[in-house]
User: Fold this.
Amino acid sequence: MNVRLLARGFFMSLMLSSAALLVQAEDKAITTAPAHISEEIPQASLQGSGSFRWFGLHIYDASLWSSPEGYKPDSDKPQKFALDLAYARNLYGGKIADASIDEIEKLKLGTAEKRERWLTQMKTIFPDVKQGTHITGIHIPNEAARFYLNGKLLGEIRDAEFARAFFAIWLDKNTSAQSLRTKLLGKATAG
Assistant:
């Protein structure tokens, strides 16, 4: 048998085995909730994920973590869930808060006075971010929104109306990011 052919076959076999191990490792990383999410939501599982782009610029990757039953947007029973944003670029915390309020206003949620109060609260909590920074929001039904920076507690806004409005940015049926919503809810088509 030709030594070159045998070596090529061995090399291809090794490459395919390595690729399979990498895919398994990536799947495990994607489906295992970070510790701070697991503490908030025991047995949390990844419901969906996707990227957000603004005029072609990659801003962040988002992942929705829910209980094993899954987050159901039309459910009468409010659910605890986590939305993790992994930033792809440097952004000022104040700009993140401003953009959040703009989206809440587009959804016609809260009064002008409430939005102004929410903006002030978010500006005190949201830090500047750089590429690779994670901010995780935890929806605590009928109570609050709790925020983490790279797994460490940042703070919370104890206002159930704010919590609903904040997560509506991504999960409301009228969100301006319909494609991302579909992916977060796990309704994305393969491909």
Notes: DSSP finds six helices and six strands in the chain. The longest helix spans residues 3-31. Residues 1-29 have pLDDT under 50 and may be disordered. Residues 34-184 form a domain with the Chalcone isomerase fold (CATH 3.50.70.10).
